[in-house]
Amino acid sequence: MNVLKRLNDPQLGREMIRKVRERAARLTERLGRAVTLMEVCGTHTMAVSGTGLRGLLSGLVELRSGPGCPVCVTPARDIEQIIAFARLSGVTVATFGDMVRVPGAQSSLERERAGGARVQIVYSPADALQLARDNPRWEVIFIGVGFETTAPLAAVSIKQAAELGLTNFSIYSVHKLVPPVMGALLGAGDLKVDGFILPGHVCAVTGSRAFAFIGEEYGIPAVVAGFTPVDILDALYVLLDLIQAGDHRVVNGYRWVVRDDGNLKAQRAITDCFYTGDAAWRGFGVVEGSGLFIRDQYAQYDATQKFAGAGPASVAGPGLATERVGKSTTTGGFGTGDFLEPRGCRCGELLRGLITPPDCALFGGKCTPASPAGPCMVSSEGACAAYYRYVTNQPRLPGVVNANSGAAGSGAGCRKVEL
């Protein structure tokens, strides 16, 4: 059986669910509590919710979400800067779709577009580059949101713009690096987890070795995982085994995609165009060495330099109830400012794995996908969006009794899904 077919085999999935539950039950009995794991990646968050794994393991494994949603971790000050760019005359803001509805203090890209601003949804930096080529009279600013996975594509677009001699293309880089924020997360000392599921696509670039410090320095095991249910179940099985044995290694469970040293060509593309510096994260403040900023040799393609006077006038606006959640230097070189969140929004705590979405008083009431208070309800990789969409109507894997059957959101009427 080839790898792809095996990863989508329902029978294998059902068997793995049984084995994971058995192993988790033994470990839970030993610990006297449920095993607490963090899925760092937002794509994993959607997968474990959408396939029903969260409900199937309820009472045995508690899965917490982490800082692996790039839209979610973009701080308020950067959101205000992006909105300020959209208000510039003669500018088109090119962005991934998830950013359009992220609320700022008074506005969003969606509202700016409704008011006449040029906001174009694109699917890659190459699309933004082509937009600039097709519209030479417009300045095109691409919003570079993402982790190590998308940064190489942004680097390639910068090099191509230079080769083409384009003068109307630039990038606002809020790209971030995952290993440093994992260090900050663990270094804070308030996160209590037994193991991590690491993002396969990030590790495909960085290599699994980039996360070895999690086990070596903090004594917590981790497994690099792919994104099918079988991938995730396999990672859970290995991770539970590591915890049971007291083994603190980082194991590569996505070997057909991820190498120990990663993708060297992609890494070179990043270092050719970007340098690392301190960057702000929603919920974390500034994380040392976690941001990617455009090198001076490509300064003409750096929106922070090209439009240096276009900073946001004010982070907080009249009529918006906000609260301060930390003060630090912001990304983008636009000075310092408080990171303001809507009052009651707990996205920052959620991204640090300290709470689950239902722990936030706004969840499902004042914060819904139709009217989001924070980015975790907006992004397709956001934990709040995943919980709102799936956990209140928890699907089940076929042929497996839901561990939560009869509990709220996971009993009768639940949709069944195939692996």
TrEMBL record:
Keywords: Iron, Metal-binding. It comes from the Bacteria. GO terms for biological process: protein maturation. One of its GO terms (molecular function) is iron ion binding. Pfam families: HypD (PF01924). InterPro entries: Hyd_form_HypD (IPR002780), HypD_1 (IPR042243), HypD_2_sf (IPR042244). Belongs to the HypD family. This is Hydrogenase expression/formation protein HypD.
